[in-house]
User: Fold Dipeptide ABC transporter ATP-binding protein from Mesobacillus subterraneus.
Amino acid sequence: MTEVLLKVDGLKKHFPITGGVLGKQTGSVKAVDDISFWVNKGETLGLVGESGCGKSTTGRMLMRLIDPTEGQVVFEGKNLVTLSDNEMRKTRKDMQMVFQDPFASLNPRHTVEKILEEPLIVHGIGTKKERKQMVNEMLEVVGLSSYHAKRYPHQFSGGQRQRIGIARALMTRPKLIIADEPVSALDVSIQSQVLNLLEDLQKEFQLTYIFIAHDLGVVKHISDRVGVMYLGRLVEITDADRLYEKPLHPYTRALLSAVPIPDPAVKREMELLTGDIPSPANPPKGCAFHTRCKECMEICKTDRPELREIEPGHFAACHLYS
Ligand code: SF4
Assistant:
């Protein structure tokens, strides 16, 4: 039976824009503007969109690394937004993050052993001896060796550093991993190795993933469901197979055009994205995508489409389906 692990409701993050000598608030950047979704236990939800769409801000709000302006994040029945700092710290044992740039997120002055031991110390797990053994075991699990424990991050390749980042996230045996562009900084040849590792670990540790990426190609094989974000909002969300076979939203279709098809017999119409993404400080009225949409109608310029269930389990925010 499917069980919901995380439920996000009406989540917003508005950053104030200040100006003038008095530093008064003159507006706000709506980095995330009222998004709702859920993640089932054991599944991978891909969150995709161009840079500035709010996907990374969403990931950070789920971990409460930044506080939401409004909305709820319910994890295992607890609303994380209202938890005290102390309760939130304890909850982070069960939800961890893997970052895009492992070099920036690993302390260069600490050995790998110290980096991996730290989350265990923070959560009061094990004796010194047990922690050392857990570090060595985890290094093997992510495809490194116990002899790597005494080395420093700069002594590793990019792919190995990301394995260390993944090992660190797994040390407390979390239930949910939020991976924010975990392979974007890696060579293409290394990307698939890290993706395969993440898939193997998901089975071994019964993990649930939120996998954030800027292109639909990367999340295709790893995701069970995919949500597409544009200018701080979810514009489409459904099962991965359905999204790739029958995308409903014109923005999703444009993003998919950029994904290479391995089978040359299969033809897909190219819908190249034109124009720049508008500023989230001053988003277009109506449908935020209307300035770049080839199917824009009059109503799109004035009325904002809500995310609606167009077909069972397939949600999209577009007037084409009103
Ligand atoms: Fe395009 Fe209109 Fe749909 Fe927006 S609502 S994606 S402008 S057709």
In short: The longest strand covers residues 24-40. The longest helix spans residues 188-205. The two ends are 33 Å apart (CA to CA).
